[in-house]
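Before a colleague's protein record goes any further, I have to sign it off. What it holds is a sequence and that sequence's fold in token form. My question to you is simply how this chain folds and whether the tokens agree. Thanks in advance; the entry in question is below:
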Amino acid sequence: MSTKKPWQGVRMRTTSAAPEIDGPPRSVTLPVGWDDRAAAALAALVPGHGSVTLEAAAESWIRPIADRARRSGIAEPLAAGLHHLLLLRRGAPTAPVWRDEAGNLGFVLNLRAFHDPEQGFDLAGFRESVDVAALALALYAPMERRIGIGFADLAGLLAAMGLPYDSAAARGFAAGLAALLRGRADAASAALAQRFGAIAPADTCPAAPEVPAFPALAAAARDALRIAAESGGLRHFATTAIDDPGPVEALLGVEVGGIAPAFSPLDDAGTLTATARATLLAANLTAEQALAATLAGTSLFPQVPESAVAAMRKAVSPYLHAVPEPAGLSAPEVATAAKRHELPARRQGYTQKAAVGGHKLYLRTGEYADGRLGEIFIGLHKEGAAFRGLMDAFAIATSLGLQYGVPLSEFVEAFTFTRFGPSGTVEGDPAVERATSLLDYVFRNLAANYLGRADIAAAEDEEADTVGAGARDRAPLLPFELPEEASPRMRRSALRVVGK
């Protein structure tokens, strides 16, 4: 990427935009080619009521990320990469990063922006963008164990490439993209784990799909998945996700969220969408020829059936950690209720006596006949009645979850590294040296004894008051020197973006 300042020479315009129809307008400055929908999205993404410029808003979250990269010895030109992704409308982080709030952290890549009519799909640019997105999210929130890098406007990309949405070629190409996204994101997480320590094992997913029409894509996906699988561990439990569209998609000019098809060739103003124009261009048809064909009874934009949407989701979902159910698909006719598996009347298990930071507790387990964990009890020695009651209720809730089929690994992921007192050195249990809380100790113990997990990162010394809003800045797992008085910005309602 160029070392030239990314915003130099960019023509800007200032307009009045409101994040909601009946909300107060704001003065918004953004590039000339960006429409009013993008202006409204920017007004929604940036907290406050005053004027906002895209360059300043982007700098407010890019600068801290770049500073942390520099302090960690990461020499990549991360700031320039993030600015260029945004300026080219290829990608941007989701709303929590713009607002400096806690929440599900994600990064949206606009697939249509990676296509050029002359050069085709920019495979190298896509790979590099995934790397930049993964590194940026990890540096922004060092304590987050889940990030969600995803893509949007698959329909627009397929149209530009001349691939009918309801075709095997389109599904193969989409599956290859999803596999490449997963492999690069996991590989980036593995590289971070080598530098700062792994907290999750190297994940496994299906082999990269064969994409005969796009061999370079298939080869890139295979290489990325192989590198990730051969790593010693990852920095995140999850790295990829496709979410419902929001203000970031509108800012990037995305017409169709996620992997959904284009439901209409017309936009809200009654003109052809970019996807529809790309469809005509790929078919070498002018607008006049398209109109003539339509008047003659030829459907150039056939309605995509629900079965095609379901098939597309089936093609990409094996490679992504989270894919929402497409809107409009029928629910199964018969829903199977979750069944509780009762424990035997006489059961095996163990009782572990330990002390965390000098506070004694007893952990007792109950097992099924096959040795699976089915219940836990947590007994405290000298804690107050209210705290003991809360821990009893938590143990019961966890036990019910186990008996209804929730994997123990999900509880381990959710409750290790939770931070509140008491915490500190663990005595009496050789499997766990330190714990950041009683819950952290309990699930480290269970992970070691029932899952054979020895790969969970060691607990670090932290003050109990790092929990809550702004904790990601005050208690990072990576060795950063962050501002002590950092606090999240105030929340505001998000722009409602209706996916087409």
